[in-house]
């Protein structure tokens, strides 16, 4: 894989010349791990991410880390070379700020860089310093590997240079994850075209497997009719409602609330309501409660248990507190009218 131009990004180790190099001895590996190491080395050689070497002052061992699917990932223990390198203080973005910046966008498109770190080449004289030992010989990296100190800073600097004119406007990026945000649905194609043009200009590759998987999921949704399970008779349905600041801040305009319907079998239906008028948290929670009640009625539910985070709404509906506000009176009466359609309705407060 060619990788990005060196003028855009090139990783340098900046090893302190006063630090004595460390050359580790080969660790023993079980048969299963040895096989996984051989397969990974062959893959890296074929992709031209590594090359074989014969003499090196630095030599690290491999560490096999189990993945979720019980397969093994080969990592290099660069602890000694990392201690000899100064820290690059390039600031990394805060994920919570990236999430907040996407609020109000009608369309979000998620992209994933293909072998992100390996798209950046190592500075030639530093390649030999990334040497590692395996049962099949010694090798060093030609491209920037995971685990090297300052690799994250180098990659983030490269992404920000590439998408400099788009960051914060219609793109956000955290390492190799890129989100294209379109304020209006009509801007989606133009935003994607601009992003792809910038990525293509610097020869940054995207992961095709993620796109194929997303397309397959979309195709399945479009070609398969939804299967609706009828509720079990006399089985209560649980409703969770919330109108917290976190939920409201995610809305496009006005206020919002969250609704989650849960059967005793664990089946869930989750919704986020967008309320097109400014309201208090209690009003938003009443809206969520009414929405949940109507959903339950349409599903044929007869017994209903509601859990909400508004002390006021729960106690007013359960007749523990008096309703004094005219606005709350209207909401409470609406709940009373829907309550008649259930054999049992209980509300509980969640602090």
Automatic annotation (TrEMBL):
CDD domains on file: RNase_HI_like, RT_LTR
Domain RNase H type-1 per the UniProt entry, residue ranges: 253-351
Gene3D superfamilies associated with the record: 3.30.70.270, HIV Type 1 Reverse Transcriptase, subunit A, domain 1 (3.10.10.10), Ribonuclease H-like superfamily/Ribonuclease H (3.30.420.10)
SUPFAM superfamilies from the UniProt entry: DNA/RNA polymerases (SSF56672)
Reverse transcriptase domain location: 65-214
Pfam short name (any one): RVT_3
Protein name: Uncharacterized protein
Source organism of this protein record: Triticum aestivum (Wheat)
């Amino acid at each position: 894989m060619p990788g990005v131009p060196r003028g855009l990004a090139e990783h340098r180790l900046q090893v302190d010349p006063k630090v004595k190099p460390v050359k580790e001895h080969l660790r023993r590996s079980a048969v299963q791990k040895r096989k996984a190491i051989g397969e990974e080395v062959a893959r890296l050689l074929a992709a031209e991410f590594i090359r074989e070497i014969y003499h090196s002052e630095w030599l690290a061992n491999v560490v096999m880390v189990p993945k979720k699917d019980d397969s093994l990932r080969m990592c290099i223990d660069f602890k000694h070379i990392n201690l000899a390198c100064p820290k690059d203080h390039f600031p990394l973005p805060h994920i919570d700020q990236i999430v907040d910046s996407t609020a109000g966008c009608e369309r979000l498109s998620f992209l994933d860089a293909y072998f992100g770190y390996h798209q950046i080449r190592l500075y030639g004289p530093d390649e030999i310093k990334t040497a590692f030992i395996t049962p099949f010989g010694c090798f060093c990296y030609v491209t920037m590997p995971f685990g090297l100190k300052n690799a994250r800073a180098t990659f983030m600097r490269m992404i920000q240079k590439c998408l400099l004119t788009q960051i914060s406007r219609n793109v956000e990026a955290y390492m190799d994850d890129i989100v294209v945000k379109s304020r209006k649905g009509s801007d989606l194609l133009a935003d994607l075209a601009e992003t792809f043009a910038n990525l293509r200009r610097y020869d940054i590759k995207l992961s095709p497997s993620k796109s194929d998987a997303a397309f397959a999921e979309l195709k399945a949704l479009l070609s398969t009719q939804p299967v609706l399970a009828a509720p079990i008779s006399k089985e209560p349905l649980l409703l969770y409602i919330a109108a917290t600041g976190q939920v409201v801040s995610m809305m496009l305009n006005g206020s919002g609330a969250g609704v989650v319907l849960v059967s005793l079998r664990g089946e869930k239906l989750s919704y986020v309501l967008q309320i097109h008028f400014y309201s208090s948290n209690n009003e938003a929670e009443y809206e969520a409660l009414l929405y949940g009640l109507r959903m339950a009625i349409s599903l044929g539910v007869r017994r209903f248990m509601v859990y909400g985070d508004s002390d006021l709404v729960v106690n007013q509906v359960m007749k523990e507190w008096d309703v004094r506000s005219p606005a709350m009176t209207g909401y409470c009466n609406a709940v009373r009218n829907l309550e008649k359609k259930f054999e049992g309705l209980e509300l509980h407060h969640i602090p």
